[in-house]
Amino acid sequence: MAEMAASGESPEILFWVGCAGSFDDRYKAVTQAFVKILNKVGVSFAVLGPEEACTGDPARRAGNEFLFQMQAVANIQVMNGYNVKKVVTACPHCFNTIKNEYPALGGDYEVIHHSQFLQQLINEGKVALKGGGEFKGKKITFHDSCYLGRANDVYEAPREVIKALDVELVEMKRCRTKGLCCGAGGAQMFKEPEEGKRDINIERTEEALSTGASAIAVGCPFCLTMMTDGVKNKDREHDVKVYDLAEMIAKDMGI
Amino acid sequence: MSILPQIAFLLIFALAGFFLYKRVSFLKRNIMLGKGETRNDQPEERWKTMLLVALGQKKMFKRIIPAFLHLLIYVAFVIINLEVLEFIIDGITGSHRIFAPFLGSFYGVAMNIFEFLAIAVLVSCVAFLIRRNVMKVERFNKPEMKGWPAMDANLILVIEIILMFAILTMNATDQILATRGVEGYTLLNGLFFSDMIQPLFLSMSDSALVVVERSAWWFHIVGILAFAIYVTYSKHLHIFLAFPNTWYTNLKPKGEIQNMPEVTKEVNMMLGMPVEGGDEAPAEIGRFGAKDVNDLSWVNIMNAYSCTECGRCTSECPANLTGKKLSPRKIMMDVRDRAEEVGKSIDLGGPGLEDGKSLLGDYITKEEINACTSCNACVEACPVNIDPLSIIIQMRRYVAMEESGTPAQWNAMFQNMETSFSPWKFAPTDRFNWADQLKNEEVK
User: Beta-strand (E) ranges in B170-232?
Assistant: First the structure.
């Protein structure tokens, strides 16, 4: 972003990479896949790089409002400084926070999740899907992220993206408004669960596996981690893969 | 004819009215223990939500069988209460079935409809008793339901069954008397359901029948008045509070957590940014987050009084489903019980909020609130739009900002965020490293 601003360019979108997309080895692949798609389509975009900081979502949800607002105000200063208008992110938590919680602190942007952006690209014909890729005809199930679904009523965009791959989308019993959390929301990602009978991601993974799907599609870095761990726990990593939507599209495009 | 019954009726009616007024004032004061919050925006959307969710029962229908049975009781309650109007006028004026002459043959039709609804209520209440006590539907048998809550639910169902029997008994004996031409009784052209139980009473003398008929009449009307008062002590308050509760629904996206402007002010001052209303330090901020009911918003407490303990929230809570202690229903019940305790104490001249107890600690534990994934399943599931998540977050704020009592792993996460602007301990300068691989690929 700094480079583009220095040369007087103003990119169409700011791609908000997020902490998982920057540091988590597995999710870095998603960031790369999404960037490849953007480059291929020729979208003018920028990233903040080292100027980006955590949105503060886990701090706010763990109760530390001071820390949340410190992060938020700093991010808003940076984004407003670059005159950012439109933000795209592959993380539903960043999406929710920037879209719904930054306006109260002076950050007003058009914010969309990458599933919505991908759906737009597909609808506009900008993403040319081969349709005959490795997913063709396969059974795929989609796990609704709480912060995309219930929190922001985005249920159809990710499903439209999956359907565009010419696959058989199979739904879990608890889907859409009734979707079961992967167990990582509300800052649970950053601590061990409380004592109980079992872990939430195991409960959810069992449900996903029971659909007979050969791949579980997600649109959230935390869900990706939780579902991948769940599949490993069930010793099914050899025949059931967990993918982010952007990875599936990039694979189908052959990039 | 003696006017004693009329005087007795008026006395009972006035007494019931007085008690109801006292109870409603008590509840209102308890709700107002909460902090002020204005939620009057988008009135059109609010009326629409109330019509759909409270009046239209929209969210009940996510579970079709209980929704249908509940709808029967709900419709019956609303319609049979039209008859109560007649009961009250009859009671005051000493008349009997005062609407009958005005409505002509339609009166008989109306009575048949009421009887049909009474039977529907009977069947539904029996079905609900079976679901609770025989089938033992899981959500009705969670730990927080032991004791009074289970008893409360069963009592309501039994009272409703008895009240419906009173209507049928009254109609049956009333029509036998009318058929025998006893003065003051109006013959209606057949009542489908109560006619079926007439044989039970046919052997009785006229005077005995009058006693049964009058007893049933008194039992029904006094029963309804007593029930109205009972409701104010019970989870059954939802029959009234569902309406304001849905009107005051949070209309913002569910994922949005309310901002704390008092924190914004401090943060802006720390960062040397302009602060609204001058840059002097705020006089007394009070408490960050919620430790007791008076730290919550009045809407949170109204939510608690609107809860009918159906447990749909708990049955969809991922934490509860996997055996954690958190139950969103229990959170609501605890808020209500604490508000009741504080209210009672104030009325008795006691210490009220200063009784050495608090919502967080004595009712709700940290273990419960820490288990929440903020997934909003409970909020989505609630048939009357109660928001347990809002209360959980406010209590987490108290623990984090007033007690510094968050779990160690969260404290570590906070520290990472403070020092490296990420919940994980990575160098901020490495944020762009993911692009290296892409650049390499491009070079190749």
Answer: none
Q: Quick check: B374 and A146 in contact, CB under 8 A?
A: yes
Nearest chain A Cα distance for residue B269, angstroms: 11
For the segment B74-92, the average pLDDT, to the nearest whole number, is: 91
Would you call A181 an interface residue with chain B, using a CB distance cutoff of 8 Å?
A: yes
The counts of H helices and E strands in chain B are 19, 0
Residues B402-416: pLDDT tens digits? 999 999 999 999 999
In 10 A of CB A235, how many CB atoms? 8
In this structure, CATH architecture of domain B285-408? Orthogonal Bundle (1.10)
In a mutational test of the A interface, the residue from B265, B382, B431 whose CB has the highest number of chain A CBs within 10 Å is B431
Same domain, A100 and A154: no
ipTM for the whole complex: 0.96
CA distances from B238 to A91, A190, B194, B302, B385 (A): 38, 38, 31, 10, 11
Tally Cβ neighbours within 10 Å of residue B436. Answer: 9
Residue B251, chain A, CB below 8 Å: the answer is no
Strands A13-16 and A86-89: parallel
Q: What is the DSSP letter of B297?
A: B
CA distance A137 to chain B (A): 30
Residues A151 and A219 in one domain: yes
Whether residue A6 sits in one domain with residue A88: yes
Which residue range forms the structural domain that includes residue A236?
A: 129-253
What is the residue extent of each domain of chain B?
Answer: 4-31+63-247, 285-408
pLDDT in tens, B207-220: 999 999 999 999 99
Residue from the list B373, B398, B426 with its beta carbon closest to the beta carbon of A181: B373
Indicate whether A108 and A133 sit together in one domain.
Answer: no
Clarify whether residues A108 and A190 are in a common domain: no
Is position A123 within any domain?
no
